[in-house]
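Note to self: the last two entries modelled the partners one at a time, which told us nothing about the interface. This time every component goes in together.
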Amino acid sequence: MLPGLLWLGFILSGVLGLGRAFLVEHENDCWEALLLAPGDKSAIYLGKLTGSLVLMLVVEALVLALFVLFFNVDLGPALPALALVIGLGTVGIAAVGTLFAAMTAQVRARELLFPVLLLPVLVPVLLGTVKATEALLLREPLAAVAHWLKLLIAADVVYLAIGFLTFDVILEG
Amino acid sequence: MSTLLLGWLAAVGLAAGLVMGFGVAPREVTQGNVQRIMYLHVPAVWVAYLAFTVGLIASITYLAQRRPGADRLAHAACEVGTVFLGVNIATGAIWGKPTWGTWWTWDARLTSVAVVFVMFLAYLLLRGAIEDHERGARYAAVLAIVAALNIPLVHFSVYWWRTLHQPPSLLKPGSSTMPAVIVTALLVNFVALALLGAYFVARRARLLAVEEEALA
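The predicted structure of the combined assembly is written out below.
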């Protein structure tokens, strides 16, 4: 119950933040400026990704602190392992989220379409993070969730690779 | 002409599949005649995944070469794959009611197929939401790549849950536990549904081409 609640907070704040990642360019008509930027277009992807990632991690740290306080959970020695799981999960969410945010920025019904595209794709990441978080909160060792960590790493690599390789296609217009 | 031939081949294959499924294949001992829905249920999901593979390859080809034909093939294949996956889910529910006692349960393999179904529904939604045709084609190609490469991740994440669904009887390491006559009936129906799927994809791609001509 608690791990699901924790990740529900993470994903909701993440979707809200990621959905606005390209809103500045759209509202200020700076999309052409992004196109004109010299150098590799995937650098823009990595930049936007890093920005969203930092924001999400800060929010998650706050939510986790409140979670510990209000649910009276003693994280103790599980904290480093939990931080690893949260980090891997957040990279996955931000990697797809940044790509889809760029895709939906120019589409009408953007607020509706973005979560509809994003959430089904993120099911493996959410399953892995919730299950791993659950095991870690029950004081199981990191080795017990090794298969989930492998899945999260695989998901991160796949999403980052697709985002890195296809971002110039999205940015064309 | 060749599309018409494909259609007739599919019709002959479906007739042969019906004969195999209802005539040649024996009545299953424990489940009875309900088991025969497997001859539609299992080939449908194979054809769906075949169609998504075609959609993935066509999407990559479109991004590399920007030929409108590849985009139309990707669109048609993903749409037909979604329809076949819908057939798989519906027949599974019909089988599940008398066998498991429920139409639907959040079992691992049911969940994973449902997630893939929703991913490709979102793909079709994105296709419809973008007015600029060329941009829609590019975005949809990227989404098809993400969705198709996500399928193994969805399956693995869900495989590590406990599952109520029987493990695959045919697509597994080691020799099959199925009698040869059931395997034959299954394969005949797979070929028939694959021909039908190919026919649908060819027709749908042609329809998309006509639509584009009409709008241009």
